[in-house]
Design brief:
Elements: H1 5-14, H2 21-42, H3 73-79, E1 83-84, E2 87-88
Antiparallel strand pairs: 1-2
Length: 95
């Protein structure tokens, strides 16, 4: 499958990319190479291949879920410009 220059111009217009006449031949060659590679990859038989989430068979090490900081609510509320009981008071942003 090859991409014609008219299609490249249309795609460039839709993407709001300026492609000069000099660049058009280079873009056509590059896109032609990409499409050829895609066609080759589609020819590969992947029926017996199980889908995977990552190319490497590794596990993500997870840390233990534990509290590492003490409760700083009172300290945070004391720094707020306006607070009422346990709430931060902020200006209205929606009318």
């Amino acid at each position: 499958m090859s991409i014609k220059k008219e299609e490249i111009k249309k795609i460039a217009h839709l993407a709001r990319i300026k492609v000069s006449q000099e660049e058009l031949d280079q873009v056509e060659k590059k896109l032609d190479g990409i499409m050829t590679l895609i066609e080759k990859m589609q020819e590969v038989n992947t029926e017996s291949i199980e889908p995977m989430s990552h190319a490497l068979d590794i596990d993500q090490p997870l840390r233990e879920d534990k509290v590492t900081e003490k409760d700083i609510r009172d300290k945070s509320l004391s720094l707020a410009p306006h607070a009422d009981k346990d709430l931060f008071i902020v200006p209205q942003v929606i009318e």
